[in-house]
Amino acid sequence: NTVLTQEVKDSVWANTYNTGDILDMVDLEYIADSIVDENGSADFWVSTPEQLASATYYINELDVDSETVSEVYFYIHLMNDIDLSGYRWASIGNLKMNKHSGSEAAYRHQFRGVFYGNGYTIKNLYVVNNGEGGSFINVSNYSTIVGLTLYDPIYNGYGDDFVYALTSKHTNYTQVVDCKVLVAEDKLDWI
What we know:
By secondary structure, this protein is of the alpha/beta class. The protein has 6 helices and 9 strands. The chain is globular, with a radius of gyration of 15 Å. About 5% of the residues have low confidence.
């Protein structure tokens, strides 16, 4: 798995997108411990910003070919509230990487699986704009996001619909269940 053997800052994702502060937070040992099969599926138990950054990096960097994309799943289990104050974040899932093109590229770097929020909250998410939206999960396919609250997110969404803070228009067969996007009262005047 080249994701585990390359320099994080030399990755294709790092050289293609604005990755925010994520690259400085990646823990390759945590990623290696989370991989569950030879295709690259992973089960992430997340309790720190560093673990969430590592999961984001892995999903965005793992190069899944079109033959095995339907066999690779990611499971993210949020274990407590996480405050991302002070971090510039990047979306989970991206449309294209420079080394791919066309529809094949659109699904190579996607979130496919389940994000278990477990009733917890991610606070103060600030997603940097990658030119394709700024949602928490930007590209997903056959996925479920359940039990997650985003509190005071800053994102580059589509219009005034706060559902785009959570997931973007680049989703296929994705269910959002029991999730909320909340904004602090003192910020309601600029919405």
